[in-house]
Amino acid sequence: IKLAVFASGSGSNFQAIVNAMAQGELPAVCALLVCDKPGAKVIERAKKAGVPAFVAEPKNFENKAAYEQAILEKLKESGVEFIALAGYMRLIGPVLLQAYEGKIVNIHPSLLPSFPGLDAVGQAVDAGVKVTGVTIHYVDSGMDTGPIIAQKAVDIDEGDTKDSVMRKVHAIEHQLYPQTLAKLFQKKEEAPISK
Ligand code: GRF
Question: Where does (6R)-10-formyltetrahydrofolate bind (predicted)?
């Protein structure tokens, strides 16, 4: 499977995915990084891992459709079959959703449908919940909606801060994302060939 990762920031999840591939734990290749933030740390990580990066800012395009069309061309050029969003801070629009229907997944740092949107860990800590977690889900046109594929809980203990919860959440994410992708891709290979 040829995978593209979309990311806007640090890219620790991108790194976890690439590492799992290198260790033979994820039977896929990362064919492309798509990044909307020039200067993001994830671009450096891609360079080090030898993953080609397409960096483009939406503001340099006429509209969102044109921006996504440019991404789509790159994806096609690179033979990308599946997309994993990993800290990509934008909604996916109709151009990409239609081209990759059912083939885009996202990771979100809460137990959805609780705490969608920005700063999900901060939201959970502020709400005083004792359990939050990580969700991997298929992407649709909504914000952190779409069918849930996998979830894992993270306890919020006495004395935890937003930073300490964030560290726990990240540690879970870095395991769960590669594992879940591996399961999805395995299922694909096992699926009977329909004629
Ligand atoms: C992760 O917490 C992910 O769940 C959220 O954005 C964060 C990205 O972190 N969607 P990183 O860039 O992978 O380090």
Answer: 64, 89-92, 106
* pTM recorded for the entire structure: 0.94
13, 149, 167: residue to mutate for ligand 1 pocket, most atoms within 8 A of CB: 13
Question: Is 141 part of any known ligand binding site?
Answer: no
The token pair that represents 157 in the structure block: 């203990």
Helix (H, G, I), strand (E, B) or coil at 119: coil
Question: Is the preceding peptide bond at 113 cis, omega within 30 degrees of 0?
Answer: yes
Q: What is the ipTM of this complex?
A: 0.96
Residue 86's closest CA among 25, 139, 156?
A: 139
pLDDT per residue as tens digits for the range 7-52? 999 999 999 999 999 999 999 999 999 999 999 999 999 999 999 9
**Is domain 2-190 in CATH 1.20.120.1810, yes or no?**
no
Cβ distance 160 to 192 under 8 Å? no
Pocket of ligand 1 (CB under 6 A): 7, 9-13, 86-87, 107-109, 173
